[in-house]
Amino acid sequence: MKKNKYIYLFTSVLVSQFFISCNEDSIDKVNSTIPYESIGGYDNSDEIAAANLITKVSFENNITDSKNGITGGTGTAVSYAPGIKGQAYQGSSSSFIAYSTVASSLVSLKNITVSMWINTTPHTGGAQSLFMLPKTTDFWGNIFTMVEGTGPANTMLMKNHIQKDVTPSIPWSGQFIEHGGSNLLPNMFGSWKHVVWMYNGANSTYSMFIDGKKLDLPASIAKRYASDPQTGGVGYGDLANSNVSKFIIGGFQQHLGAPWSAPDGWMLNYTGLMDEFRIYNAALTDNEVVALYKLEKDNR
C-alpha cells in the first residue's frame, strides 16, 4: 500500500511539471515581442531622412549631440525633467547650453529643417531664444528661433531667422520670418507641442508644422523673395551662413560672451521644456514630418 502511494505521488509530480511546462510555453508565446506597426513607412524616428540628420540632442540627462554636428557642450544651470520621449531639457531664466565647435555639415547648410518639442508658458519682458547658430560679425547671428513675450495669452509670436544667399545689391543677408499678426500660433502653451520649420533653398520656400499639421501660410511668409516679386524679383536661394562660431541652445549668442557684447535687456533665456532637438540639412517632405511627429510621440 505504501509502495502504491509513492508511485501515485511520483506520477502526480510528473503530471504537474508537464502542465507547468506547457503553461510556461503558453505564457512565453503570449508575452513574445509584437512588432510595432510602421508609421509612414518607418519603424522609429531615426530612420527618417537618416542621411540628412546632422544634429540630434535628446537631453537624456546629458547635452550630447549624438550626430556630432555640435560638440564641446557646456551647460549653465541646466536641469532635466520628464519629456515627450525620456528626459527633456528644463530651461530657466539663467539656463543655456554652449557648444564650442560646429561641424562643417552645419555651417554649410543650403537647406534646413529644425524639429523640436517644446512645453512652455507665456512670458513677458522680451524674447526667449530656443537656439542660435551665431555669427561673429552680425548682431542677429546666422540662424535662430525665438519666442516673443507678446500677443494674447493663448497665442505664440515666433520668429525664425535665416541667412540667405547674398547678391551685390543686397547688403544685409539676414531674414526674419515672423508668425505674428494674423499668423500668431494658437494654443501653444501649457502642453507639449511638436514644432518643425524648414527652408528649401531650391525653390526659396519656407514652411512650418505644428503637431504634424502643416500651417496654411500666406505667400508673404511662405515664399522668400530677394526683391519685389511684382517686378520680377527672384527667390533668396540657398542659405549662406558665415563667420560661424559656437552654437547655443536656450539663449542668444550674446549670452556666450566675447566677441559679442552683453545681451540686451529683452534677450531672455528659454524657460520652458525642450526635447528631441533635431537639425536636418534638407527640407523634409510632409510625410516625413508627420511620421517624425507620430513616432516620437509614440516614444520611438
TrEMBL record:
GO MF, one example: hydrolase activity, hydrolyzing O-glycosyl compounds
Alphabetized SUPFAM superfamilies for the sequence: Concanavalin A-like lectins/glucanases
Gene3D superfamilies: 2.60.120.200
GO BP term (any one): carbohydrate metabolic process
Stored Pfam families: Laminin_G_3 (PF13385)
Keywords carried by this UniProt record: Lectin
Ligase in keyword set: no
PROSITE patterns: PROKAR_LIPOPROTEIN
Protein name, as recorded: Concanavalin A-like lectin/glucanases superfamily protein
